[in-house]
Design a protein that fits this description.
By secondary structure, the protein is mainly alpha-helical. The protein has two helices and no strands.
């Protein structure tokens, strides 16, 4: 009986780290796939945002404050007054 318990303890000591390594590696791969998905989604969102907020560069050069917002979120006109 003591030999069986000793054999079980030795076997557990050898197999347990390998099982834990396999589990951690699998979780790491799943996390990497998730993060890759986030990166791809973020790039797509930036493309959409850039397309939606394209600015007429000539108008921006003529009046850099055109369409600027104040701290309270109210858009101001070119004279610095709120409309």
């Amino acid at each position: 009986m003591a030999d069986g318990a000793f054999l079980f303890a030795v076997l557990l000591a050898l197999v347990a780290p390998l099982v834990l390594y396999a589990l951690v590696r699998d979780e790491h791969e799943r996390d990497r796939e998730t993060v890759d998905g986030w990166d791809e989604a973020e790039r797509a969102a930036r493309k959409d945002e850039d397309a939606a907020t394209s600015v007429d560069t000539d108008a921006a050069r003529r009046d850099p404050d055109a369409g600027a917002e104040t701290d309270d979120g109210v858009e101001k006109n070119g004279w610095g007054r709120r409309d």
